[in-house]
Amino acid sequence: xxxxxxxxxxxxxxxxxxxxxxxxxxxxxxxxxxxxxxxxxxxxxxxxxxxxxxxxxxxxxxxxxxxxxxxxxxxxxxxxxxxxxxxxxxxxxxxxxxxx
Length: 100
Ligand SMILES: [Zn+2]
Known about the structure:
Elements: E1 6-10, E2 15-19, E3 25-29, H1 30-35, H2 40-47, E4 60-66, E5 69-74, E6 82-84, H3 85-92
Antiparallel strand pairs: 1-2, 2-3, 4-5, 5-6
Zinc ion (ZN) is lined by residues 37, 39, 41-42, 78, 81.
């Protein structure tokens, strides 16, 4: 598995900076991450065919490495979602349309 060696919240660009050991890097906008939230509530919305709840100005408060992925804490109370490393990698490549 390709685990990033650097993760940082970049408030000035409202995005999460991720860098992988192979030198590739990505800036994932908070709003896109929030739309891709993997918490139980958001996954249920996805299964029910409802659009994700997200605000364009949503903020990412914290990003905590958690075993197989990154737990992202948003300012709208969504904080239970662990984004698996592979999922983040896929989001970074612009393939953000599917459930892992
Ligand atoms: Zn959520």
